[in-house]
Design a protein that fits this description.
The chain has 405 residues and is mostly helical. It has helices at residues 2-19, 21-33, 36-44, 49-71, 81-94, 102-113, 125-151, 173-193, 197-213, 216-232, 236-251, 260-267, 276-289, 309-314, 322-350, 355-371, 382-404; strands at residues 158-161, 164-167. A hairpin with a 2-residue loop joins strand 1 and strand 2.
Length: 405
């Protein structure tokens, strides 16, 4: 009976998604950005964090399947999902990490590859526009939803760390910052294509959200991408204005200590705040114990068991470094294959763009590569929104270039 109900639910979700794919994409992105694995899990009190994430990613698979059925399938020879498939096979041949079952590895393979499956569908421009809209304004919608929950006494909007406020809305501050950073990416590229005041407003909102979350890496990458845009457009006056704002922030830093990024510089406590120095050695050891082919997709979830004292102390067993996690799962072979396919995927996807948007997009992915050294950029729910957005901008460039060709 349970299997029948699950099958019925999937069939209904697929039918509705086939009829209204644009609305389904908007709802899915907004749902991802509110982090239901956090606020819904707290309200229900069921400790079903992984289950909720699985359901969210499963709907992404339904959406990708609906798009393929509705608009057709396209070839994508450099899709990064092939690297995860290769890691899965080499893990089976080498032997899985002790405690990692075949079913768990297969589930992790589906979760890791699902974010890239949209690139196999032919995405129309109206669908891509809907995704861009949701990406731009999703963080603000999350703030509004979080304020509603807080007003009802069901959740909190912020946390306090080392005397500084961190905005989290309905989830953890790093996740909110990650989604706002994707909004920055979308806004910068959309502003290059169609300069509008609404886009500037979304950029300002998302930048302020990142600042209030206190997430340092997203803030640095957002600044890097904004400077890259100004340099590509040769806007010297705006560059000078950015320098003045930065100088003002330094000058009045003593008044802004309640903002975590500034408060940490005053306290001199800007290193190892996520306890990366504790978790990284475990992943390094797993990588070095099987350096060529790794331990199979999904090994990163059990290298530090959820029942360990470290997980209980830190509240997470994540690597906070995708290169270490992927190295432990796929070894040097899998990690280098993924990096190569990702680079080729981006180069091919941006070829149809005009020069300035092309280099802006490549700068965005350079920032993403840097961000991956300190955060879980390819396993967290932010990856689903990011790679859907990337597939959409590649598809839009291809669709607009096709009539001319």
């Amino acid at each position: 009976m349970i299997l029948l109900l699950v099958a019925l639910f999937i069939a209904c979700a697929l039918a509705l998604t086939l009829l209204y794919p644009n609305m389904a994409a908007i709802i899915w992105i907004l749902a991802l950005e509110t982090s239901p694995d956090d606020w819904l899990d707290r309200l229900a009190g069921t400790a079903q964090h992984e289950t909720i994430i699985g359901v969210m990613k499963a709907f992404g698979l339904v959406l990708a399947a609906a798009l393929m059925l509705r608009h057709g399938v396209r070839r994508d020879r450099y899709n990064p999902s092939f690297a995860f498939g290769s890691m899965f096979l080499t893990g089976l041949m080498h032997g899985l990490y002790p405690g990692l079952t075949l079913l768990s590895s297969l589930r992790s393979l589906i979760g890791s590859a699902s974010s890239f499956l949209f690139s196999f569908a032919r995405l129309p421009e109206d669908f891509c526009a809907a995704v861009v809209w949701a990406t731009l304004w999703g963080p603000l919608c999350t703030i509004v939803f979080g304020a509603m929950l807080a007003a009802c006494g069901l959740d909190h909007m912020y946390v306090v760390e080392q005397g500084a406020l961190r905005l989290g809305a309905t989830g953890e501050p790093p996740f909110l910052a990650g989604f706002a950073l994707i909004g920055i990416y979308a806004g910068l590229l959309d502003f290059l294509l169609r300069p509008r005041r609404a886009i500037l407003a979304s950029l300002a909102v998302n930048f302020i959200i990142i600042l209030l979350t206190g997430a340092r890496a997203p803030l640095a990458i957002a600044c890097f991408d904004i400077l890259a845009l100004l340099l590509l457009q040769r806007r010297i006056v705006h560059l000078a204005g950015a320098g003045v704002l930065a100088a003002g922030a330094v000058l009045f830093s003593s008044w802004l200590g309640f903002i975590r990024v500034i408060g940490l510089t005053q306290l001199g406590e800007a290193a190892n705040l996520s306890n990366r120095g504790i978790v990284w050695p475990y992943f390094q050891q797993a990588f070095l114990s099987s350096p060529l082919f790794g331990w199979g997709v999904g090994a990163g979830k059990i290298i530090i068991p959820v029942t360990s004292q470290i997980d209980a102390m830190l509240g997470t067993n994540a690597a906070h470094n995708e290169y270490l996690r992927l190295g432990a799962e796929g070894g040097a072979f899998g990690l280098l294959l993924l990096i190569a396919l990702m680079a080729l995927w981006v180069v091919r996807g941006t070829t149809a763009m005009s020069p300035t948007p092309r280099w802006m997009t490549r700068c965005i992915f350079i920032g993403f590569a840097v961000h991956s050294a300190t955060d879980n950029t390819m396993i967290a729910t932010t990856s689903s929104a990011f790679f859907l957005w990337a597939s959409c901008i590649f598809a839009t460039a291809e669709n607009r270039a096709r009539p001319a060709a």
